[in-house]
Amino acid sequence: MAPLKNLEQDYTIIDSNFLNFCASHGIFSVEDFLIHDLYKLAAFAEQNISSERLKEGITQVLSIIDDMHQPWLNGMELLEDAKRNKHSLPTGIQGIDFLLGGGIRVGQLTELVGPSSSGKTQVCLQTASNVASNHMGTVVYLDTGNSFSPQRIAHFLGMTNELASSEIKNQILQRVMSNILCHSVFDIFEMFDVLHKLEYRLRSQDRGVCQMRLLIIDSISLLITPVLGGTSSQGRALMVSAGYLLKKLADQHNLAVLVTNHTVGGEGGTSKPALGESWKSIPHSRLLLSCDRGSNVCNVSILKHPSMAGFTTHSVHHQRLLKFVIPVAESSNKGAN
């Protein structure tokens, strides 16, 4: 849900006085409002010189929250929604699309796990390029490590359209680049701010405009790992809240969400996805990626997938393993994540 400040332009009762009153009680977003004791908040409002207007503001926010509630859906309506909206978005990488039965799923959170230089960023850039090019939708790319490369995307497009004329190539490049919105994010609180603003924008956007189709966070583990230290549970709570917010955005707005995560050392010297058990249950799908940078031959295996339960009887590294060649821009082999 949106920061309260985002409601100010549409509701005159939610003015600077009301926002300052809420902020003095630690309320900055609709979520903060929901978990606050509203009886105490109303009592504090009574003591203010603008008590009537503040109470009207509280009532207005409650009304907005009621309007935001999703309607109850029966099984048939959910099935129709899945058929109509929850399809796959091809990544443009044949091996991964074959493995996933078409691509990453709309309405779900897909996690790409791998060590450094395994090709995670390359997959994100290729997916962004393919979706922006072939599906006429907007891609929002949250870059946490300055790894977004428009040059690589231009290279992918050149490979795909190598027989086209220079003029057509330039038109395709302009269209694709304008459909990819990149935002640098360097801490988890800034990510929350961006996601809340994005949610508000998705709720209020006109149905006739170009729809957002894909949200990428590369890498989400860089934002979450710093808040997990120590014995406090606050970091884990922030991590879980981020995961649930991403899943809600995916489901309610028919987005495919793709995040990357690094690996850490596990028992017996084997590597495992970072962020621990609390995060493990959040992604709908988890892919493990490794890559030989010399040959560009990559291995991808499914660690978790809601539509492939039949593979869970095998070792996770052999549930469904596939080798493929990842397209790499010649000028950007070095440092690809």
Description:
The chain has 337 residues and is of the alpha/beta class. 42% of the residues lie in helices and 18% in strands. The protein has helices at residues 16-23, 30-35, 38-46, 51-68, 75-85, 94-99, 120-134, 150-160, 166-178, 188-204, 220-224, 234-252, 276-280; strands spanning 88-89, 104-105, 109-113, 138-143, 180-184, 212-218, 256-261, 263-265, 271-273, 285-292, 297-304, 321-325. The strands form 3 sheets. Strands 5-4-6-7-3-10-11-12 form an 8-stranded mixed beta sheet. It is globular. Involved in the homologous recombination repair (HRR) pathway of double-stranded DNA breaks arising during DNA replication or induced by DNA-damaging agents. Residues 85-263 form the RecA family profile domain. It is found in: Nucleus. Keywords: ATP-binding, DNA damage, DNA recombination, DNA repair, DNA-binding, Nucleotide-binding, Nucleus. Belongs to the RecA family. RAD51 subfamily.
Give the SSE layout.
Layout: H1 16-23, H2 30-35, H3 38-46, H4 51-68, H5 75-85, E1 88-89, H6 94-99, E2 104-105, E3 109-113, H7 120-134, E4 138-143, H8 150-160, H9 166-178, E5 180-184, H10 188-204, E6 212-218, H11 220-224, H12 234-252, E7 256-261, E8 263-265, E9 271-273, H13 276-280, E10 285-292, E11 297-304, E12 321-325
Parallel strand pairs: 3-7, 3-10, 4-5, 4-6, 6-7
Antiparallel strand pairs: 1-2, 8-9, 10-11, 11-12
Helix pairs in contact: 3-4, 7-8, 8-9, 10-12
